[in-house]
Amino acid sequence: MDSFWLAAKTAFELVVSMDADLAEIVLLSLRVSLSAVLIATAIALPFGAAVALSRFPGRRALIVLLNAAMGLPPVIVGLVVYLLLSRAGPLGSAGLLFTPTAMIIAQTILVLPIIAALTRQTISDLYEEYDEQLRSLGAGPLQMIGTLLWDGRFRLTTGVLAGFGRAIAEVGAVLIVGGNILHSTRVMTTTIALETNKGNLAMALGLGLILITIAASINAAVMLIGDAADRRYG
Amino acid sequence: MPPIVATAEITAERAATDRSDGTATEHPLLPLVVDGLTYRAGNQLLMDQVSFRIETDLRTVILGPNGAGKSVLLRLLHGLLQPTGGRIAWNGASPDVVKRRQAMVLQRPILLRRSVAANIDHALRLRKIPRPSRAELIRDALAVAGLSELASRSARTLSGGEQQRLSIARAWVLRPDVLLLDEPTSNLDPSATIIVETMIRAVQGTGTKIIMTTHDIGQARRLADDIMFLHRGGLLEHAPATEFFHGPRDRVAARFLEGILPA
């Protein structure tokens, strides 16, 4: 038990003093996951809305697939991206394997279905409510999508935050395609896994504290945004 | 709540320019000719061979008990539903062609999750009205609805009466040639009802043809110039209001007026 408290104390000092190595790792984590969520959001919002509004054969199947893809195992995504980017793979010539870019690609694939599926659900519900009114006002399909995305902005924000929570906390995908290389592709989760194996509990715990704080803040933000939206917009 | 001060002025002004002698003038979407209109949903016949002709630009009220097909008829006239049979011609044009020259107020107001003013702004933006002209139109519309002081409030937090007024203001700001209203006061208390009825009169005063539904006989008496009595998807009587309320020719309509709901 003593070693635990010692580790916790050192961890706390590392965080408070903003240790250079630790800061680098935290910043890379944020850069990778925020980029991935940004890219995924830019694709998933219009895509989810378009699926919600359109009717075509195979739409049901696509929605089932999308919902199922919310639970993609990170290691599988990592493996697939690894195969695509490895020297022998179809995209091998780009030389992206074991770079932050590869990690961003993997996490984008991981969170895109989450944001798209939540967008599809949110926009479908709103569409049912607004459809007649918007048609009566003479809205075209693009105007409808714009209106629905804006009116669903609070619920959509929580979907995006859920995607970010998933990205920042996953270890499997970034470990496989990033390789956990010091000063290059080492992020919070991969460091925690590595340092724990090495027995360097202080560093692992320090990062753990930061990760928990970020994850908890996201969940709090999701709740607060939902409450504020309910109070203001019903 | 300030009961519509600006309305009277606007009404008087428009009436003076648009309808100087008080008789029906040339209306761009009239006459409305409906012939053999039928609407079927699944195996339910909701509208059965309805034919009529509306020439007057005064207020037409579609009266009938719940389930008569009043809402379906309005939606068909507006092009929100496609008829399974028959024809609708607004001065020769189909509803799809003239939808943008009409506006409709749905029974339950569907307001956007934005401020009161932003709801009206949205309707104007959909019609591609340039930003500089929008501000004044919004101000006028809010004044007509008596909602000027609530402009920045979230539309969803308004009372039922305020929501319905906003919904009418949003329709009216588009300056439609025809305004369709589906049971505009069915969820309102008497005082809110009177305000909404005053607004409807004001809108009609600006040259907009009103077609509305109600199951409220009192409201029909107060507002109707022209009555259509609908029952079970069929049009049983279409007559000037004075004539209809003096003594309807149709037996079911007569019983409805006596307060005996036709079974």
The total count of helices of chain B amounts to 10
Number of domains as seen in the coordinates of chain B: 1
Largest sheet: number of strands, sense, barrel closure of chain B: 6 strands, mixed
CATH architecture of chain B: 3-Layer(aba) Sandwich
Unreliable segments of 5+ consecutive residues of chain A: none
Name a few traits of the molecule.
heterodimer, A: 234 residues, mainly alpha, MetI-like fold, 10 helices, B: alpha/beta, six-stranded mixed beta sheet, 9 strands, 39% helix
Can you offer a commentary on this structure?
The complex is a heterodimer of chains A (234) and B (263). By secondary structure, chain A is mainly alpha-helical. Chain A has a single domain (25-188), classed as MetI-like (MetI-like fold, Orthogonal Bundle), CATH 1.10.3720.10. Chain A is built from ten helices and no strands. The termini of chain A are far apart. The model of chain B is unreliable at 1-22 (pLDDT under 50). Chain B has one domain (5-112, 166-257): P-loop containing nucleotide triphosphate hydrolases (Rossmann fold). Helix content of chain B is 39%, strand content 23%. Chain B contains ten helices and nine strands. The longest helix of chain B is centred in the C-terminal third of the chain and has 16 residues, at 190-205. The radius of gyration of chain B is 18 Å and the shape is globular. The interface between A and B is medium-sized, with 18 and 21 residues.
